[in-house]
Specification:
Number of domains: 1
Order of helices and strands: EEEEEEHEEEEH
Number of helices: 2
CATH topology: BH3618-like
Distance between the termini: 46 Å
Strand content: 35-45%
CATH superfamily: BH3618-like
CATH class: Mainly Beta
Number of strands: 10
Largest sheet: 8 strands, antiparallel
Structural class: mainly beta
Radius of gyration: 15 Å
Helix content: 10-25%
Length: about 150
Amino acid sequence: MITVNTKAYGTIDIDERQKIFFPNGIFGFESLKDFALLDAAQQPFYWLQSLDIKETAFVLISPFIFRKDYKLDVAGSELEEIGLKPDDTDNMLIFAIVTIPENQQKMSANLQGPIVVNRQNRTARQSIAINPKWKTKHYIFEELAGNKEEVC
């Protein structure tokens, strides 16, 4: 167990397996390499908490929750940097960074810059989607409503 100062929960103990290393950091936060992946109090969200700066934490969501058609479409070389191959889907976790504005109905997820985690070696990177279909703002509630309409 390691003790972590978090933005959301104060000081907590986490399992060593929750630590994730970003060799290149996250876009805009390149100097921060060490993070912890935490379950959020409200499912289906997660916290990506910097281990260096308590105030730096990101809300994450799996894109597959609100976009059943989501396909990770990033350069194979970017996956290789963290020890993955494009078909190694069982060994990868894929997240999108969530932005929560004052009007929470306009909560959005960045599918253009997915976070990919190698589950085995716990290294990760933020990549850039090759497919222009994926934008920096996908409105989660709107897309969930759209998915329900398609199913009915």
